[in-house]
């Protein structure tokens, strides 16, 4: 594997340069293997990967992570077959930048999507995980379920099959999405069609993204050892998507106004997603694919459930409610039953997958392979891991997590409105937590942590400025823009 670098003192090289280098290297490596490998394929040559990303899934609402309701029994059992990372941090608290980072290995401030959600996409000069896999001889397939992951934003680069059909409709706004059951139907059909070929398969499940509409027959998950403390709070209806001290407009269900009703809906969404994951696990077991395939399961971001007075929404901050996500790896050589402490990034799936497949990595990326950690079940080096939203940046490092605002509170123009929700958007200040245990504990802000985040922020802001000056993506299709306006993601 190539050496990898977190965002630091290294200037970003041309995306086109590292794309060309990676693809040529990949094709040469694949060609060399074909020319010289006249005997049976080795186990390394037979390897495949299934990447599952789940939208809007908080790590602390999974029962295997300690949540006191049984939200994820199938995922719990599957996680015991491999390694779970306790403090995986998403690069961003909303969909498109986070997924773009997982597929490029670059922090959101260093790829062309940037920190906006649906106003810019990946340009063709970017190098994607699928492109490297395809150049290495693997079949590449994807099934996605969110408007912001359709091919309009360039994430389809390198995929032979990119199923971005959105046959379902949201309950309130009525725009397209795909429920987990329908996405899993498509995924299982496509996996069944793959015979004795190596492949990289990406499956994105939209549930439990709001509106929280779990299918019929999914009851509220039962309590485990003890139930959650109840929050007896009735919320007013909001006028926007922000969820600030109110129910977002797209989340309203009839006369339901109580916090507990919506939290129960969210948990039921997780339980229904878990049921669909069980279908995938059964299919992989039946075909014996776990003997040769790495399965990676993570999320793009979490969800605010009252933190900072935001409810049933995301994108307002990089609080741990919105960036602490699950990360599970199961496959050949991965240590079963391991739980890894220390901060990692969900972007690390990029380097880990390339490492597992023994494929070349770009000369510069911010992703770090976790394969050896997963195989040994050992503690990770613990950061630094960075994250961002349009309003904040954060860092996890040496057992602590810090978040701070990107812009001074005095800049009234910046804080006037959140462009992602068309609603409340305000400075939240600087806060820090200890990640030493299984739950975060608020602490005083340390000078070392603050200085490390400040250094990274300066580099990231400079990169965003360079990208904004150098990327011309043309006009967006009006039907796409209409859908984004319905989401609150575009004007």
Question: What can you tell me about this protein's structure?
Answer:
- The protein is of the alpha/beta class and 491 residues long.
- Helix content is 30%, strand content 17%.
- The protein has helices spanning 15-36, 73-79, 95-104, 129-135, 180-193, 259-287, 320-323, 349-357, 371-376, 412-415, 447-470, 478-487; strands spanning 48-54, 83-89, 139-143, 161-163, 168-169, 176-177, 199-205, 293-299, 304-305, 311-313, 324-325, 327-330, 338-345, 385-388, 392-397, 400-405, 431-434, 441-443.
- The strands form 4 sheets. Strands 1, 2, 3, 4, 7, 8, 11, 12 and 13 form a 9-stranded mixed sheet that branches. A 5-stranded antiparallel sheet has the order 14-15-16-17-18, with helices on one face. The protein has a two-stranded antiparallel sheet with strand order 5-6.
- The radius of gyration is 21 Å and the shape is globular.
- The N and C termini lie far apart (43 Å).
